[in-house]
Amino acid sequence: MIVIGVDIGSVATKGVLINDDQRYYLMAPTGWSPRQGARDIIKGLMANCSINRAETDMIMATGYGRVSCEEADKTVTEISCQARGISALYPAARTIIDIGGQDSKVIKISKAGKVSDFAMNDKCAAGTGRFLQVMATALGMDVSELEEEEDPEQTIGINSMCTVFAETEIISLLAKGKSKGGIIAGLHQSVARRVTTMARRLKAEQDIIFTGGVAINSGIKRAIMEELQTPVTVPEECQFTGALGAALLAAENLMKDKNST
Amino acid sequence: MYQNNVEDFMKIREVNVMRLKEMKEKGQKVVGFYCTFCPTELIIAAGAIPVGLCGTKEDPIPAAEEVLPRNLCPLIKSSYGFAATGTCPFFHFSDLIVGETTCDGKKKMFEIMQDIKEVHVMELPNLNKSGPAFDLWVDEIRKFRTKLEEKFQIKITDEAIREAITLVNEETKGVKKIADLNKMDPPPLSGIDLLTTIWSRGFNTDRKEIIGMLSELEENIKDSTQVSGEGENKGEGKRESEGEGKGKGKGKDKKKTRPRVLLTGTPVGLGSEKVIRLAEEKGGAVVAMENCTVYKTLEMQTDENCDDPIIALARKYINIPCSCMSPNPDRIELLERMIEEFQADAVIDLTWQACHTYNIESFAVEKLARKLEVPYLHLESDYSNSDAESLSVRIEALLEMVAGK
C-alpha cells in the first residue's frame, strides 16, 4: 500500500509518503499558493520514490491549506492528524503541544490514541512562530539563530502580549542597553507561557510531546519545561508529525474500506 | 412535505412588516422587545402587538461603533445599530421599546437608545432565588403594567392578562412540540430549519396564527417522517446494492447517522447562525439549541390558576436560566436533560465576543460535558465571517472526535 499525507501549513508544507513500512519525508516553504505548494510536495515525494499517481492508493491533506489541495482524496483536520502521528511514534503520549507558524494548540490523546480534547489559539500572532519571526527581525537576527543567543540566566520578562506592542517593547529594551540574550530568553518565555496556560486549562498529562516548526527552537522547549515543571519531548521529525498522521489515517481509511467489502 | 411550512416561517418577517404598516395606519399600538424576559402577555393584554426587534445581523455594527465601544457583544451593537440607522422596520413601528437590566452591556446601551425612542427598562434582579429579588421583580412587572396603561390610555384587566397567559402558554407548547421532534434519530429538522421556525415566530403580529402554523408544521413533519421512514428503508436497501456494485461497503452500519450536536450559549438568530451552518456543512446535525432564542424558555408555563396573574408571570420569567442570573444552576440542569433527551454526541458552547456572563459560565458547561463524557467545544466569535476558517477547523476536529469515539 502506498499513501501520502500532506500537511499544508502557513509557513511550510510537509509531506510523508508511506510505502509499506518505508517512510519518506519532504518539506518546502508553502509560498503564496498553498495549492501549488501542496502539488510540489506531492510530486516531489512521488519522484523521489519513482512512483506515479496511479500507484498511490490515497492522498490525505491536512493543515490550513487542506481544502485547496486538488490532488487530495480526503481531508482531515491537523488536530486528528497530530494525534494519529504522535501516538504512532510515542504510544505513551497523552498531550501534544504544537506551535506552528500562525497558531498554537494543545491536544489531549486517549489511551487508544484518539483526540479526547483540544484547545487552539489562532486569533492573533502572539505565542506562534510568526511572533518569533517578527521579534527576530526587530533584533536583526534570523529566527533560526534565537536559540543559540538566548541567555536564560538573565531572562527579561516581556509584558506585551500583542506582537506589534512586543516589538516596540523590545526596541525600547535594546535602547536601554539590556542584554540581547536576556531579551531572547524573555521572548521564549512569553511564547511558552501562552501555550502552557492553554495546556494547564486542559489539564495536560504526561507524556508531553512538543511539535511544529517552533519546536526546533530548544529555547522554547526549555521555557515550556520550566513553566510546566515536567519533561517535554521533541520528536526528531517534529515538523512532520501532522503529515505522518495524515498518511497513517489514509492507510487506515483504505484498510477499513477493504475490510468492509 | 413540511419544507413549505418552514418557508412560511421564513416569510414571516417580510409579510408582517406590511401587515404592521397597515395596522399602524389604523391606530394599532406596537411594543418592541429584545429579550425573552419581556412579559409579552402584558403587551397582548393591553391590546398592543409585541414584536421582536432586529439584532442578529452584522450590517449595522459599523454604525453602532460610532457610539458604542468596539469591544462589546455584537448582539448589543447590532441591536443599537439597527435602531440608530433606522433599518429595523419593527423598531420603526414600535410605540415603545422594552429593555431589561440583563447584562451590563445591554442596560448601558438602553440608556443611549433612549435618545432614539422611548425605552422602558425593567430592573431584572440577578439573584433569582432570593425573596427580596422576587418582590422587586413583581413590582417591576406591576410598573410595566402601569406604564402600558398610561402610555396607551387604557385599563389592563386581570381577565385580559389571564387570556394572554393562556395564549402564550399555548404557543410555547406548540413551539416545544416542534423542537422536541428533533429527539428523533435522524432529526426531521435541520438546525437551520429549526432556528428559522422558532426564531422567526417572534416577528409575527398574530399569536393565534402562529399557533396554527406550528401545529400544521408538526402534523406535516409527523406524517412525512412516518411515510419517509418506510421510504428510507427502501432507499437504503437500494443504496447498499449500488454500493456493492462499486465495491465500496458504505452504510453497513445502519445506525450510523450524522453526529448529533447540541448548541448552547449566547442567543442566535438568522444572520448570526454561522456556527450552526458550519457544523451542518461539516457533516453534523444540530439537533437542539439550548440558547434563549430557541429552547431555554420552552418548558416554562405561566400558572393559569394563580390568584394574581402578575405573581404568576413574575414566577415564570424570573426562572429563565440566563447566564445573567447568579448562580444559574437551572441552566446546567436543563442542559443535562437536553443532552440526554436529544442524545447529543457533542456540545458546542458559543459565546459572543465580550459576553462575560456566558463566557465565564462556559466553565460550568464544560464540567457538565466532561461528567457526561460528551465532547465539548467552546467557541468565542462575533457576527463577522472573518474567523470562518478557524471556527471550521475546531468544529471539524470536534466532529472527527465524535466519529473516532
SSE blueprint:
The complex is a heterodimer of chains A (261) and B (405).
Chain A: E1 2-8, E2 12-19, E3 22-29, H1 34-48, E4 58-62, E5 74-75, H2 78-89, E6 95-99, E7 104-109, E8 115-121, H3 129-138, H4 146-149, H5 163-175, H6 180-201, E9 208-211, H7 218-228, E10 232-233, H8 241-260
Parallel strand pairs in A: 1-4, 4-5, 6-9, 9-10
Antiparallel strand pairs in A: 1-2, 2-3, 6-7, 7-8
Helix pairs in contact in A: 2-8, 3-5, 6-7
Chain B: H1 3-10, H2 12-25, E1 30-33, H3 40-45, E2 49-52, H4 61-64, H5 74-85, H6 89-93, E3 96-100, H7 104-113, E4 119-122, H8 131-152, H9 158-181, H10 191-200, H11 207-246, E5 260-265, H12 274-281, E6 285-289, H13 309-318, H14 329-341, E7 346-352, H15 356-371, E8 376-381, H16 388-404
Parallel strand pairs in B: 1-2, 1-3, 3-4, 5-6, 5-7, 7-8
Report on the architecture of this protein.
The complex is a heterodimer of chains A (261) and B (405). Chain A has 261 residues and is of the alpha/beta class. Chain A is built from eight helices and ten strands. In chain A, strands 3-2-1-4-5 form a five-stranded mixed sheet. Chain A has a five-stranded mixed sheet with strand order 8-7-6-9-10. Chain A starts with a strand and ends with a helix. The mean pLDDT of chain A is 95. Chain B is of the alpha/beta class. Chain B has helices at 3-10, 12-25, 40-45, 61-64, 74-85, 89-93, 104-113, 131-152, 158-181, 191-200, 207-246, 274-281, 309-318, 329-341, 356-371, 388-404, and strands at residues 30-33, 49-52, 96-100, 119-122, 260-265, 285-289, 346-352, 376-381. In chain B, helix 12 crosses helix 16. The longest helix of chain B has 40 residues, at 207-246. Chain B starts with a helix and ends with a helix. At the A-B interface, helix 2 and strand 8 of A face helix 16 of B.
